[in-house]
Amino acid sequence: MSSSPPTPLAGHVIAGSDAPEKPQLRVGFIALTDCAPLVIAVARGYDRKYGLEIVLQRQPSWAAVRDRLLSGDLDASHALYGLGYGIQLGLGGPQRDMAMLMSLNQGGQAITLSRALASRARNGAALARHIHGSPERPTFAHTFPTGSHAMLLYYWLAAHGIHPLHDVRSTVIPPPQMAEALRRGDVDGYCVGEPWNALAQSEGQGITVALTSEVWPNHPEKVLACTRDFADRHPNTARALIMALLEACRYLDVPAHREEAASWLALPDFVDAPRDVIASRLLPEKAADGSAPGIRFFADGEANFPYLSDGMWMATQYRRWGMLREDPDYLGIAQSINRLDLYREAAAQLGVPVPVSTMRSSRLIDGRIWDGSHAAGYARGFDIQA
């Protein structure tokens, strides 16, 4: 498949007072299946439809995404949901006001164990028995300290009675290096986005034992992030970028289009992994191993709305695990970061439905309900915490 994009789609280009203040954008991404909206936006010409030229720049790690957003080397990026929240709260690095323009997807991540560990524990309950009955502590990797992989991995472990800060060791590894780290024996398991779980399993190095959608159905995952300063100085650009990516997300809801996306993602400039491995957990139907990918890119806009309660949940977990010593203003932080104003304006232009409520209710793996209410009590209400 050629790596050059097709002819731009027909359609109006935003002009006049609504024209993008900065038409050429450097947009970062990590080699993951869920960068698909960005790849498709460029491949299908949705960026040019709205007066933009997205220049995609692959990044080696989430730390690099953070650093290049803050330095201005990137205008915006595919990012972990919790990356912007961590920066806003000054966790593990410099504090900077951030903006989350939209959600790019929900779900689509997994937890994989080495074959050696999976031979003793093929699920969370068995893993707990093994860990509590052994003097050794296995090492688990995630991708960024404040990211969704870390928080969902910790939640899954704790839901099975495993303390993620005491009973196991943890380390940070960039997503594309996960399968290799498992092969070398550097880690015993990890939580990461696809295709790096599917790749380890296809190579016989690991076994996927849980999908993150089992931890939290339709959980928030990757977002379109930038600094608040960029969004405030370039509101037309931000709206146009949201519109281009909403079109890409809507396109990805069609199964045949995901087949096309798998071929694009396999190219060396993007994910650079076997096309069949990518497709095995990108397509809506169950994979050959019986797992369902659980990834949503659009769902009539539901997967893209930047719910305040999603960001607030991340902050409750930072409090739970001792990354925050005091309760922040959970709602105020989410209102500051999640740019509902820009998202609603962009969605209205495209006729994409917008939920009435900025909160949503979910039941997680331990039976607890999270709906954005009583955040401080929720954060302190777990039996296992720091």
UniProtKB/TrEMBL annotation:
One Gene Ontology term, aspect cellular component: endomembrane system
Pfam families attached to this UniProt entry: NMT1_2
Gene3D superfamilies: Periplasmic binding protein-like II
Superkingdom of this protein's organism: Bacteria
Sorted UniProt keywords: Cell inner membrane, Cell membrane, Membrane, Signal, Transport
Cell compartments where the protein resides: Endomembrane system
Principal location: membrane
Identification of the protein by name: Nitrate/nitrite transport system substrate-binding protein
Organism of provenance: Pigmentiphaga kullae
